[in-house]
Amino acid sequence: MLILAILSASNALGDTTIAKLAPVKYAVLNEYLPDSVFMPLELYVGTFNAGGSAKKARSLVLFDTSKIRGEIVNAYLEINLKFQEEYSSYIKKDSYEIEALKAVQAWDKAKWSNGNSLGSDRIGGAVLGDAGQYNIQNLGSLVIGWRASPETNYGLLLKGASESVEILKQIDSIYLVIEYEES
Prior knowledge:
Structural class: mainly beta
Number of helices: 2
Radius of gyration: 16 Å
Helix content: under 10%
Number of strands: 11
Distance between the termini: 33 Å
Order of helices and strands: EEEEEEEHEEHEE
Strand content: over 45%
Oligomer: single chain
Largest sheet: 11 strands, antiparallel
């Protein structure tokens, strides 16, 4: 379940603070129902079989980085997957690579028919497997850019690297983790 809150904790690494930001806005783009708005409790990414044909699911997430004060040392996306046996015909344990793309325009009530082209440059990726935690590293420069020009923060689009393989992943929670030195 996505928790819409900012969690932060001090760290014993000196003056480094770790902020764990939950999305302030999110949506699932579902090719099977392209004109429907989906904001379920979980996010999905990958390809699934619906009515005998392969359909894609992508997720959009937006994080508010405006409250981070200080010099950013590191930033990464923390993705927590879950696997429920009752959904095993859709959700697969197989390894599957996902990509994080920088969203390039504002989105509200995003759906497949109007949100499919929101992603631009690939900024990272991760190979996801069974239930557990996975990270997409090296997002520091992206977050620094969002802080320098907040009007460019449209969030991230998560999608399968190869959407021709029928593997769907269910994201139980996702956070933008930012390590920074307070000023």
